[in-house]
């Protein structure tokens, strides 16, 4: 069917949708600016931890054979300690990645439990947090009761 000169043209995006999109874009832009310093801190921390991990892989302190049993035990204890630290760092890197994803998805700074905004000072102090201070306190109290 041919459209004549009097046919009404349909806009690909209705004007109402355009205004909603503009508001969302402005909100996203301001949210990105709001957390830009936190993003930089998280990215810096992640980069430093990954560089340290690469250095640790390049210079491993493998098991050494010590003639003295106490030296061998000390070396094993130190190796176990190092492994625990690396595991904690891996978990922190995962939390950093999740926080960066939340910033990208514009869900960063919203408490997962009560869905209220997490105050900026808390985010600055603990940028990987997913709970506001009240919900974190409740969570810790619930953990105490379970023990």
CATH architecture assignment name: Up-down Bundle
Tally the beta strands. 0
Output the number of helix runs: 5
Q: Helix and strand string, N-terminal first?
A: HHHHH
Could you estimate the helical fraction of the residues in percent?
A: 55-70%
Class inferred from helices and paired strands: mainly alpha
* Shape assignment: flat
Structurally, the number of domains stands at 1
Determine Rg (CA atoms, Å): 26 Å
What is the CATH homologous superfamily assignment?
A: DksA, coiled-coil domain
Termini separation comes to 73 Å
Strand content: under 5%
Identify low-pLDDT runs. Answer: 1-28
Q: Using the coordinates shown, work out and report the CATH topology.
A: Four Helix Bundle (Hemerythrin (Met), subunit A)
CATH class: Mainly Alpha
The major β-sheet equals: none
Mean pLDDT: 81
Give me a quick take on this structure.
The chain is built from five helices and no strands.
Please give a structural write-up.
The longest helix has 36 residues. Helix 2 runs antiparallel to helix 3. The protein is mainly alpha-helical. It is 67% helix and 0% strand. It has 5 helices and no strands. The chain has a single domain, classed as DksA, coiled-coil domain (Four Helix Bundle (Hemerythrin (Met), subunit A), Up-down Bundle), CATH 1.20.120. The chain is flat.
